[in-house]
Write the structure tokens for this entry.
Amino acid sequence: MRIGILAIQGDMDLHHRKLRMIGISPLLVKTEGELKRVDGLVLPGGESTTISKILERYGLRESLKKRIEEGMPVLATCAGIIILAKKFDKDEPEVKSLGLLDVKLQRNAYGRQRESFEGPVRLKINDVEKTITGIFIRAPKIIEVGKSVEELGWYESDPVLVRQGNILAMTFHPELIDEDNSIHEFFVKMVEKKGGRNV
């Protein structure tokens, strides 16, 4: 099994550290060839407009979309969920999303960088309920979910962690929380169940 991290912009180093904490040695993915080698992929937080443009420039957009459509598990945080979302509350011409996750988002819903905050996130994963610290940095808000989307985590009454088949996506940053690895562990199990290759 090989898990990759999209390493074209954003906080890939923090996801790399988190995955190594749970025994995974991830591959940093910058090319189509590297994308073909992985069984699951992390789409890290960062600047969604920049990530969208670099995906186009590197020729990765269509190959990434195809891999996800074919069932490759994906973990997406913050900017990553923006890259996957089908709908936004207003026109976002600077972001060319993949349109794969059936949610509607409001970008920067909680304010700009200086309004970043921490808050309790209630999780329900594998019928286990717990509360972890959610760190929200220029975070989007999920304002609608489609029928195929399962809510797995909430901040107050807002869904902040969702799953749609092979896509696990959230508006906060679990890679910043040292005391809890449950989301990354859950994603690794998704990849294992999909049948990761030994490469």
